[in-house]
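COMPLEX REQUEST
Ligand: glyoxylic acid
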Amino acid sequence: MRNPKDFFKPMAIGAPEPPREIPFRPSRMIHFFDPSNPKMAAKAPSIAAKCDVLLGNLEDAIAADKKTEAREGFVKIAKENDFGDCQLWTRVNSLDSPWFLDDMWQIVQEVGDKVDVIMVPKVEGPWDIHYVDRLLAQLEARAGVKKPILIHAILETALGVANVEEISGASPRMQGLSLGPADLAASRRMKTTRVGGGHPGYLVRQDPNPDDAEAPRATAQQDLWHYTIARMVDACVANGIFAYYGPFGDIRDVVACEDQFRNAFLLGCVGAWSLHPVQIDIAKKVFSPPVDEVLWAKKVIAEMGDGTGAVMIDGKMQDDATVKQCKVMVELARMLAEKDSDLKAAYQF
Ligand code: GLV
Ligand code: MG
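STATUS: Structure written out below.
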């Protein structure tokens, strides 16, 4: 075990000090783009204007013969643009791939001061984070980077899920975790070929009618991802970092995408990936607390005075715990309102 007194010392001489806490920044959607695609690269500034996080993807979905173009494209975009309050992230290739080292080296060296977060795929345990942590410190020191680059890990292997608590607390740089349902399904040998969402075969069925064995029995699809999202949220919050739902692959099924995002929001996630502009709007809608809930929460907080004791409001019991629930809603709303004037007006701040 590392001496806790050393935990916040830089891991390399000359590297910036690791952060003591991860401040919340709106990140309702992490919008993925392919930096090797000149059309997408050209659209990056206009997309950034609508997004909380823009992420240049270097990993899966980028063909092997496009890896260098993607990396160089990302560096060029980062150099040429200032995306204002839209954060700039990248997803590098996996630690065992032939591209990881060059991804890290080139990005930190050339645009280390512009990148907020590096997303690391297929993280299996705290050892993966320790390695990235030390490497980042060495690269930051060499490149003279002033602000520590944060690490976001994708939870997409069975071993990663088994180690999720240790991964979340493996470094002060840890910013958050995303659920990667496609790789995770493969790793677990789940029998779904979908990227996120439900499955018609995963269901519960109503009991048979005792008077009519042939009568139709209602079924309801269940949520394949409930356990993992809930576990990920606990691991993240326990370690002062943020949880995200990952990709929803069926771009045309905007209804199911919204449901999947909302389930994640209700369970404690702060955002989700968007793979297409249509999903940006869905994430914005879902991960901004509903206006009626915010107004209700403000009312509860106001009526509860110092926050202790109990009162009835519209027939509903309120006490110390419900005030805390309401504060979660209002604090998030307040932070989003700072960024978005329409929300500010709607939430009546
Ligand atoms: C994302 O990377 C996934 O595998 O779902
Ligand atoms: Mg994946």
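REMARKS: The mean pLDDT is 96. The chain is about 45% helix and 15% strand.
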